[in-house]
Amino acid sequence: MTIKCKKCNHEAIIFQKYSGMHLCKKHFIEDVERKIKLTVRKDYSIRKNDVIAVALSGGKDSSVALYVMHKILGNRPDIQIVAVSIDEGIHGYRPHSLELAKKLTETLGVRHIIKSFKDEHGVTMDDLAAMDREKGACSYCGVLRKSILNRMALEIGATKLVTGHNLDDEAQTVLLNHFRGDMERMVRLAPPVAVEGLVLRAKPLRNIPEKEVALYALVNSLPVDFSECPYAGEALRGEIRELLNNFETNHPGTKYSLLRGFDKLVGALAKELPPAKIEKCRICGNTCTEDICQACKLLGRT
Ligand code: SF4
Fold first, then answer.
1. CA of 229 to the centre of ligand 1 (A)
2. pLDDT digit string (tens) for 213-230?
3. Fewer CB within 10 Å of terminal CB in the chain, N or C?
4. Atom of ligand 1 nearest to the CA of 141
């Protein structure tokens, strides 16, 4: 038996357990884009002459972020959208996703800039992964990538740096910070305030469940890499992902509730934990909160 869309007579392609709605392709796309527009309007108000850098890996999340930002803002002559990608140097994984990223930017007619760990930091992720390390590979990758992305965004005069974090990422991070008792990091999850030297981060997909991001990419036939990085697998995050997915199955809406609770709490938390003093790294000059930035520390530059 065909299940009909809640809003029209067409065949449904998804059942949103948390909303109780079956949706057809058209109404699913509308629902995703409506939520993204609301998030952008509420948390990251777009201003005249904004230059929006979109961090693009070629995976589903960042590709959907670029596609939707371009769809909702691409016809505004006063707004520039630029895709920025990082080649971390991960053999057998990153070259393919970068190819797909190029394909998407060419289709959309969006300027695309690519920089590499090798050129910017003198090492590849494969080099770092093979070394004796104190931390997981993703800790190195995340810190180095953030520092290059921020620099690239500054270089092109970006006023916002969009990332593809989805609802699952955000809910996992909220829970992860609770489990670690890391409230300083928790506060940093809030919609950001302007700080000189750091481009404002924006997460337009923070209210879209990961499965819906994947489905949105599929129904729009976006060129997207669905493979997984060989270094993926932060142990605690993996456990939290499983736990949250089980909760979501048994109690639909759990991920949204977790994020809504965090959004209500974060203002009060920020008053208790004011932001750290902003400094310039004495090695590389990047903006950071200590004498030496995280990237220089991880690379052993002293
Ligand atoms: Fe980098 Fe980890 Fe992501 Fe791989 S999974 S690209 S190592 S952050």
1. 6
2. 999 999 999 999 999 999
3. N
4. 1
* Structural domain count, the chain: 1
**Average confidence (pLDDT) over 78-89:** 98
Whole-structure pTM value: 0.94
Domain assignment present for 175? yes
In a domain, 236, yes or no: yes
Instruction: Give residue 210's domain range.
Output: 39-298
Three-class SS of 191-259: CCCCECCECEEECCCCCCCHHHHHHHHHHCCCCCECCCCCCCCCHHHHHHHHHHHHHHHHCCCHHHHHH
In a domain, 141, yes or no: yes
Residue 158 has a CB neighbour count (10 Å cut-off) of 23
- Residue 56 marked as a ligand binder: yes
Instruction: Name all residues whose Cβ lies below 6 A of ligand 1.
Output: 88, 125, 137-138, 141-142, 229, 231-232
pLDDT band at 190 (very low <50, low <70, confident <90, very high): confident
Please check whether residue 95 lies inside any domain of the structure. yes
Find out whether 288 is annotated in a ligand binding site. Answer: no
Q: How far is the CA of 215 from the centre of ligand 1 (A)?
A: 22
